[in-house]
Specification:
- The protein is mainly α.
- The protein is built from 14 helices and ten strands.
- The strands form five sheets. A two-stranded parallel sheet has the order 1-2. A two-stranded antiparallel ribbon has the order 3-6. It has a two-stranded antiparallel sheet with strand order 4-5.
- α12 (240-250) packs antiparallel against α13.
Length: 299
């Protein structure tokens, strides 16, 4: 499988990592030099305590990004947070300011040498041919690509490269299936894979997997599969937050009455009526666990 163009989909501007990255490093050095000499603009009136904290957070992140650029290493948003958790207090703050810094400098986040923490897991027989000529080989007995929770850009782009015919996968089109919890978040994850996300509408065309099929869990599987599910293990009452999330999804384009996913809409409505959700652990009642469930529903 040739993934020489996949980097572009992930906003990994490797072609810019020469003069553009050197220019960016220079801009950081100028910024720190001005700060050390006290030449930063004076704010009048003086910033509040919250504003001062925000400025401190930004400069702490800039310092770590600068170090990553100078030393030509990659860091994750999670790395940044754990360098100073007492200052940042929560991961969301780091995520927001890193993206703001990239936007301010008018560069993709990858050009800051900052990556999101890895979320996807992949297994199977494959070879990845990278742009630099190196090859990454993977070989296991069972083929799967698994995202953990809501899929990030890298997971969605990689899956699309696997299943959508292109030069990257020699124009093959293997089937792809989504197995998610039977709850509002599970259906939202399914929708993100197939139709994209609200947060990145400009990216959706390039990373959505329109051919992905919903394998489960759905209401009939959770309730009627008496041979392969354990009701005591996985059925849970919807929380107030679950019900709010389900009603929000009903207003999303794919789930609307005239939208493309009427079966998904019906499942959400059934979920709300039954006031019930089910996690994938419900499939583990058989001694073979999830393998038995997959044999039944993929046959």
């Amino acid at each position: 499988m040739d993934v020489s163009g996949l980097d572009d989909m992930l906003l990994d501007e490797s072609s810019m990592e020469g003069s553009s990255q050197e220019s960016l490093t220079g801009r950081f050095e100028d910024l720190f030099a001005s700060h050390n000499k006290g030449f930063l603009p004076i704010v009048d009136p003086l910033p509040s305590a919250d504003e001062s904290l925000a400025i401190t957070v930004v400069f702490r992140i800039l310092e770590m990004v600068h170090d990553a650029l100078v030393n030509n290493i990659l860091i994750t948003k999670r790395d940044i947070y754990y360098h100073d958790p007492n200052l940042f207090t929560k991961q969301e703050i780091v995520d927001r300011y890193v993206d703001d810094i990239a936007y301010t400098f008018e560069v993709p986040r990858s050009l800051l040498n900052v990556r999101a923490t890895a979320k996807g897991l992949v297994a199977g027989r494959f070879e990845l041919h990278k742009r630099d000529g190196s090859i990454i080989a993977g070989s296991t007995e069972k083929e799967s690509e698994q995202g953990k929770g809501y899929p990030d850009i890298a997971t969605r782009a990689f899956l699309r490269a696997l299943v959508v015919p292109s030069t990257w996968n020699l124009f093959s089109s293997p089937k792809s299936y989504a197995l998610v919890d039977y709850d509002p978040d599970g259906l939202a994850i399914l929708s993100t894979y197939k139709h994209g996300s609200r947060a990145l509408p400009h990216e959706n065309m390039d990373i959505a997997i329109g051919t992905i099929e919903w394998l489960g869990l759905n209401s009939s599987q959770a309730i009627a599969d008496r041979e392969v599910v354990d009701y005591q293990q996985g059925l849970v009452t919807l929380s107030d937050r679950d019900r709010r999330r389900a009603n929000q999804l009903l207003d999303d384009a794919p789930f609307r009455e005239a939208g493309p996913e009427r079966a998904w809409r019906r499942e959400l409505q059934v979920m709300l009526v039954l006031n019930m959700k089910a996690e994938m652990q419900i499939c583990d009642s058989d001694v073979k666990g999830l393998s038995r469930w997959l044999e039944v529903h993929l046959s």
